[in-house]
Write a structure and sequence with these properties.
Helices cover about 35% and strands about 20% of the residues. By secondary structure, the chain is α/β, with parallel strands linked by helices. The longest helix is centred in the first third of the chain and has 18 residues, at about 5-20. The chain is globular and about 40 Å long.
Amino acid sequence: MISRIALWTYRVTDRAVDLTLGWETWRQVPVPNLGVTGISRIQGKKYQATPYLVLRRVFSEILAESGFLPGDSVLADLGCGKGRVLDFALTRGFGKVLGLEHSEALAQAAVDNLERKRSRDPTRFEVLYGDAGAWDIPDEVNVVFMFNPFGRGVMQNIVGRRVPNPNRRWIYVNPLHLDVMIASKLELELWRGDLNDNYAYAILRG
């Protein structure tokens, strides 16, 4: 289980980095305040950004282990929230990022944040409002990122709709439904953390 000191470090770092960047992505938003209905309200999770310190570790490993050339890579963040991961991937050199978000308010926040910070390269990002369980991942995407954004049913829809791609990696932080992904024949390449760690993560291929 993650320690209180680690949690405190994550929170302090998140607020400090947000302040430096001139935006606010650290504040959590409960499901009732997301403006979602139906299955999104039932199976959706509260908005909670992946800590910057976790992102640094994850992206260092995915780039080191996969041999990707970031400039040729396209990342999709399923449940992109306010756009933190999308911007982080761009700072790491990814050629393009796509965000999908089931809350219209959060999707607009991500657009506003990225347009303000990335006004010189608007063609490198796109934020979509919609249901991840009904979205067909574009062929160009070779990295999919998720921070436990959905319940089991939506996860089953996501992996069930995918077209297998041996060159695609899936980064799954707080992987509560990892068994769903493995059952769909995604290959587990890397595991960091333990089952009681909210910031454990898995990297899969397929």
